[in-house]
Amino acid sequence: MKPDLxxxxxxxxxxxNISEPTFVKNFSDYGQIYQIHFSPFxxxxxxxxxxxxxxxxxxxxxxxxxVAVNKLYEFAHPSRCTALSLSPNTSLTVxxxxxxxxxxxxxxxxxxxxxxxxxxNTCRVLSGxxxxxxxxxxxxxxxxxxxASDDNxxxxxxxxGYKIKTTFHLSSPAMVVAWHRSDPGKLLVAEKIGxxxxxxxxxxxxxxxxxxxxxxxxxxxxxSDSQILASxxxxxxLLWDVTKPCLPQQSTILFPENGGTIKFSPQGELLAxxxxxDGSLKVVHILTQTLKLSASVSLPTNVQWHYYYPVVCVxxxxxxxxxxxxxx
Length: 328
Hints:
CATH topology: Methylamine Dehydrogenase, Chain H
Oligomer: single chain
Strand content: over 45%
Helix content: under 10%
């Protein structure tokens, strides 16, 4: 998929599809959902994490006539969760089970949980950031954990012992850190000022940068193509081809307000975006610019796609909402 140059296009609002969720799971007994995370790995594709104010639920999804969300374990979490990431070393196919995930929290700490979903549970606390943590992510080979913070830094931690490998000092808050499974030697760092850089992990040197000079709230590296990424900047969705980094290849106004998060579908044909100020979830077909879904949400979290099924998910207050999306 290589987008064409189309700057400043507005979505065709006359074809808007205002849609209710395909399935809703109520978690009102737990309270507001602050973050959700679907496994990005094939071997744990039906695993998800849900963060509440003082709890993290580890759950299993099943898709038949409807969607079932089965809680497998509950972890205490002492501070409001601001970011979630599942380790690629997580496995439910071996005994004992091995669950590893990381959280960022409002107390500026990173926590790495390890569990067999029975009696062996550990929580390692990583200190070093001095402001809110916006993103955490494990690399595909489970060698590193990266964290992005409002303190204008990205920290790279070894997963063996969780010591700091390096700190990247930025000129504005770090909003997003990301790896690509086909190119694990590069780390994507997206800054609030609109600057996106790729770092060589071993040399710790930036090797490519994209700059649109507008406030950035979110970015995502297309799982299906390591040369395509998207950013959300002042409500504008930008698609970039990293082989032609001077200008975005495509531009679409999604929201009248700044803020929000975006996520490519695993196959790369669709992109979902949610904005709490605008109160909407939108799904766009990348090539045709067709608006596949527009849904109202009042208190949404980040947006997630299932690894295999064409299902997008957002938590809205205490409800977990799923939409089944056709790519045609």
